[in-house]
Amino acid sequence: MGISFEAGSRPIQPSRPNYNKLHAQPLPINTYPLPPLIPHNPLSLLHIAFTYLLQVLVPPASHPAIPLRGYFSHETHSVHITDHASARILWEHGFFGKGSLSRSEPAWLEREKIRQGVLAGNTSEDVTRMRREERKQFKNERARKEREVIEEKLAEEAKVMPNGVQGDKEVADGHINMPGVAHASSGSPVLPHEDDRRADSLWDKLTDADAYEPLVKLLEQRPNAILNQEHLQLTLEEAFFLAYGLGVLDIQDLSTRANLSISNIFSLSNSYFPPQSSKYLSPDDPFLLSYVVYHHFRSLGWVVRPGIKFAVDHLLYNRGPVFTHAEFAVIVLPSYTHTYWNSTPELRSAVERKAKKSWWWLHCVNRVQAHVRKSLVLVYVEVPSPEEIGRTLDDLGEVADVGRFLRTYRVRELTLKRWTPNRTRG
Length: 426
Prior knowledge:
By secondary structure, the protein is of the alpha+beta class. The chain is built from 13 helices and 14 strands.
């Protein structure tokens, strides 16, 4: 978005983006639905037939015009998108990934331009920071007023009590010693200082990548240009869904620049270090269980985001994080109902240790989700036996058909809601 400047005038404030138009496509693919059928208009049948024949004879492109390319990083066990245009496509069409130097949306370049005065306005992270400061000031003022009320009450009780006894609470210099609240000489609480943390970038490892060549030309033409040092970081579930589920992402190895096939990506994405071949892959590998759940909810139309902030595996958004908060928090749990897992005492003991969760754990997680107004969803993934997994492998022990491999898993959902007497009282 271009911002114009005039001599002696303030920069023009950019208008707020139209999120409904910006995020109109739920996925980075193009779909072409047929026209609607109007019963009282016979010409609509001709319109439908003409559109159908046109799409059959001249199929329109379903993939983005810009080829999407990512680089698999062994150090971070994730996929990096270094091209700015590709990163915007993946974020605007499905909310995939996060900025390496941002909280969520890759907006480091915009923040840097605002910091240097090139652009005017505030980014979403600046707005969030200002809101948090307002909440801290509000809580600070509320604590100060509550402390004044308590001090006045204690002062009145001290006048009534004999021999100057002031009760159990200690009053020093006219202030109550409240735990967790520090006071300055003026008597107002002092807020804890927040360290300014900045994420480290892997820019030095991407200097030999193809995405760096346009930046070199840009520096030669415009020496004072601001380089975008941020890349989009995809989780393994997101990258595999884009590469296998949608087929819109090409992934290369960051160190060798070799193109990775779906089987290679599948082998590199497992939870073993160093990565092992698919024939040694355990049926209850955490990546497999997590991706099965991710693919399941993405296919149902949900926007799936990482949920580590709220101690869960995934968060489910109806449209996306720029529209509403997440409605559901998902925890992935393995379920060993197949008879193979109960065939020997050793297997039975091993799966019990993996699947068993304490009541205190469930209560803590459910309480956290209730505090942030989210419904907890326990997703049980039925783990197949190694024999079923072996039928989907080829002669070399690799996964030949990923779809057939994933169909051996089953998903069950259980929604929990914390019962609060004050809110559910009849």
